[in-house]
Amino acid sequence: MKIVFMGSAEFGLPALEMLLKQHEVAAVVSTPAKPKGRGLKLFDSPVTEFAKSRGIDNVLTPENLKDSEFISRLTSIQADLFVVVAFRILPKDVYSIPKYGTVNIHASLLPKYRGAAPIHRAIEAGERETGVTVFRIDEGVDTGEIILQKKISIGDSETTPELYERLSAMGAGALREAVDGLTGGNVSTSIQNQSEATRAPKLTRQEGHIDWKLSSTQIFNKIRAFKPFPGTYFFLGGKRINAEWAGPVDADSNTNNPGAVITAKNDCIDVQCGSGTLRITKVKPEGRPSMDVRAFLLGHSIAEGTVLE
After folding, report:
1. Which among 16, 123, 233, 285 is placed 20 to 30 Å from 72, CA to CA?
2. CA distance 290 to 192
């Protein structure tokens, strides 16, 4: 099958690699190079970088997906299928070009967690199960007909980067099945149940600020979910400190002073939450590397009852 792949993030690389082995990838579409670092040097997206390393000459990085020249170039390729993984929202003039349409790999069990951050939001919500969905793109955001889904359990302490890697590999396998089905003409799709839909909006920096009125389990889930961005943090003496790792203790017990330090000694800092206690074991002070609490406490004395902000 002749395919155009569209994506920008590392999440799509296993899928692209699979397509290169089993099909004809006629072109790759990704985001334009972006300035990074203090020198603002331009860097290609992970997908563009990967495509170039595999000798793909036809790599397109349009600023505007509605540009007529870009659409004309896509049309001239005469691809059978477009595959989208972690990319931008496509206009109808683009996703309707190929004869088999355009399919997307989404890192959730749609219609749950539609949007930009499905992995983060599933962990944040304390979900025990998630998966990937291959679906046909339509005019909505992650609303198209489902071709197939694969489920996977979420580990009790699993973080976003860990789950991201597993779902990325699973997505490639699901895509292979979907494309084989389309090629053989034996795909049956199902319509999403709109009443079960939930959102997975993009993360913001402000969300990482710990609200100690939440339960220790809820805060722990945020710590797992918000890696590497935006991180979870609190303020001690006006200075920001990231809670790099922690765990809930006595998760069901009620407390009356959320944010108050119960104890800070040896290798942990125990903090009262809305219910339960959060035991912090690893921190990252502002402007310094990540460290165990034991090392942090060598240079910081935290009195019992101190309220973390």
Report:
1. 16
2. 43
Alpha-carbon torsion 116, 133, 4, 98, what sign? negative
Give CA–CA dist 41/46, Å, rounded: 15
Rg (CA), the chain: 23
| Residue 164 to residue 11: CA distance in whole angstroms | 7
Residues whose CB is less than 8 angstroms from the CB of residue 195 and which lie 6 or more positions away in sequence, other chains included: none
Kindly report whether the global pTM for this prediction surpasses the value 0.85. yes
Q: Work out the number of other CB atoms within 10 angstroms of the CB of residue 7.
A: 28
Q: How far is CA 8 from the centre of its chain?
A: 13
So what's the pLDDT on residue 251?
67
Nearest-angstrom CA–CA distance, 214 and 217: 8
Say which amino acid occupies 127: E
Taking the C-alpha atoms of residue 134 and residue 47, their distance in angstroms, rounded to an integer, is: 19
Please identify every stretch of the chain with a pLDDT value under 70, giving residue numbers as ranges: 251-252
> What pLDDT shows up at residue 61?
97
Residue 163's pLDDT is what? 98
Residue percentage of the chain with pLDDT more than 90: 92
Burial class (CB in 10 A: 0-12, 13-18, 19+), 61: middle
Of the candidates 167, 163, 131, 136, which has an alpha carbon nearest to the alpha carbon of residue 149?
Answer: 131
First to last CA, the chain: 56
